[in-house]
Known about the structure:
The chain is α+β, with helices and mostly antiparallel strands. It has helices at 5-28, 56-68, 127-163; strands at 44-50, 87-94, 100-103, 119-122. It is elongated, with a radius of gyration of 24 Å.
Amino acid sequence: MSASAFDIAASGMAAHRAEMDVIAQNIANASTIQAKGGVPYRARQAVIESDAVDPFGSVMTDAVAALDENSVDPFGLDAAADAPAGVRFAGIVESDAPPQYRYDPGNPFAIAGGPRSGFVAESDVDPIEQMVSLVSTGRAYDADVAALQAAKQMDVEAVDVDRS
Length: 164
């Protein structure tokens, strides 16, 4: 079943809203420090993937297999193509970057001994990078809204043409 323009735009809006939530969590925790014996907050990133039934890899594998069989049209250009299916929020991936360390021997969370004695482990979140991601995601959301409005306008105009 193919998705309509409304479904595609709505799925993009939902995925980008979830991505903005993850970015907001990162910004809110950018200055957190390590709790005793714990690890500092790690930056998180939203994973957005295609909602298509057949991802590109499987379609390409099928096309190469058809090419091997000496098919006339291995890429199915004569067949009716399925419309794009949209995207979905697949989950959150946590950064594996090491924490940042700041020298602050008076801090109660400072490391007591060893080579990092007197240092405090901080989050690896880069607030500037997160703000750039937030602006980019906001623009992608706005593009989805514009696509939804354009699809709505086309439907309204199609009904007007049908009435004429």
